Description:
Elements: E1 3-8, H1 14-26, E2 30-35, H2 39-47, H3 54-59, H4 63-66, E3 69-72, E4 91-96, H5 98-106, H6 112-122, E5 127-131, H7 138-149, E6 153-154, H8 168-181
Parallel strand pairs: 1-2, 1-4, 2-3, 4-5, 5-6
Helix pairs in contact: 1-8, 5-7
Amino acid sequence: MARYVVGISGASGMRLAHLAVSELARLGHTVELVLSRHAPSTILQEMGEEYASPTKFHESFKPEYRARIKLHQIYDFTSSIASGSCQHDGCLIIPCSMSTLAAIAIGLADNLIRRAADVALKERRKLVIVPREAPFSEIHLENMLKLARMGACIIPPQPAWYMNPKTIEEMEYFMLSRILDQFGIDLGVKRWC
Length: 193
């Protein structure tokens, strides 16, 4: 199975981030997980106290999934994923705040999420960024364009109404399927074709 780095910044979208980690682990992949310094406060607002620390977030996964999820500390630059020699199959930043996006775009690798993204770019590995902001300013769009030109895939979490979703969970699962498509992972959801 594959190995993926998943960085969770402090932007809104924690349920989608949790679902991404859970699905990757459910499918048998290894997940190298990093939460930003501000992620726990957003997790608290969106998911509740039982998830609101890196350790609690990690412990919220089923035990059989948790065995495939390695939690890294945000400022641990001795972590394996801080090195270009660490082999993995891609890096996913979900959700990606505009400050994290800007830092990655200028090569500011001042925490482990940003360093892992920097490594993905320099090693020509798949980097998928799920930006969370609305509307996008010209600065945001310029940073996204810069990263797209470097090879990153920018995929905002957008629902599709053609699938006639009945629940928020169905919409989230569809959005996640589009994101994981970028890594060649098919969640088997209904498609247009």
